Each structure stands twice: as C-alpha cells, then as structure tokens.
C-alpha cells in the first residue's frame, strides 16, 4: 500500500430512517453503541449534544483481516446527526 493511499481521506455517508423511534431514543442508543463497540480501542466522544442530536467521536483501533496474522491500525472520525 502506498503512503498516498494510506493517508487519503475518504468519506462515507449513511442515512437511515427509523420511523416510530424518537430522536432521544436513537441518540442514546448510538452513544451506547459507540461505547460498547470501541471500548477497548480508545474511542473518544469529543462532542455530544443531545438537544441538537449531534455526536462526534474519534476512533483509533486495529483491524485484522480474516485469515491473517497481521493487524493494521486505523483511525477515523465518526459524525452522527440524529434528526426527527
């Protein structure tokens, strides 16, 4: 892998509709999921605003492709906006 491809910034956007689920319920479950999913990986929720429905987390973790002995560190910023 070249240094350029390793440092290139990529953006992914996902939009999910969750009818019949209030904004506060979705917000609380996302915060809980982040804590549970990255508990051993130093995930940091740098910003949370329940009223606005915004969460910003910086995650540093490792991935290990199936069938390999090599782990690769990765880091990313996750922005979550919850709206009615």
Q: How would you classify the quaternary structure? A: single chain
The assigned structural class equals alpha+beta
Taking the sheet with the most strands, its summary is: 3 strands, antiparallel
Number of helices: 2
Distance between the termini: 42 Å
β-strand percent reads 25-35%
| Order of strands, widest sheet | 1-2-3
The residue fraction in helices comes out at: 10-25%
* Shape label: elongated
Order of helices and strands: HHEEE
Radius of gyration, taken over Cα atoms and rounded to an integer in Å: 15 Å
State the total count of DSSP E strands.
3
Which stretches of 5+ consecutive residues score pLDDT under 50? none
What does the average pLDDT come to? 83
Keywords:
84 residues; alpha+beta; 3 strands; 31% strand
Structure description:
This protein has 84 residues and is α+β, with helices and mostly antiparallel strands. The chain has a domain at 42-84. It is 24% helix and 31% strand. It is built from 2 helices and 3 strands, in the order ααβββ. It has helices at 3-7, 23-37, and strands spanning 44-49, 54-63, 72-81. The chain has a 3-stranded antiparallel beta sheet, with helices on one face. The protein is elongated, with a radius of gyration of 15 Å.
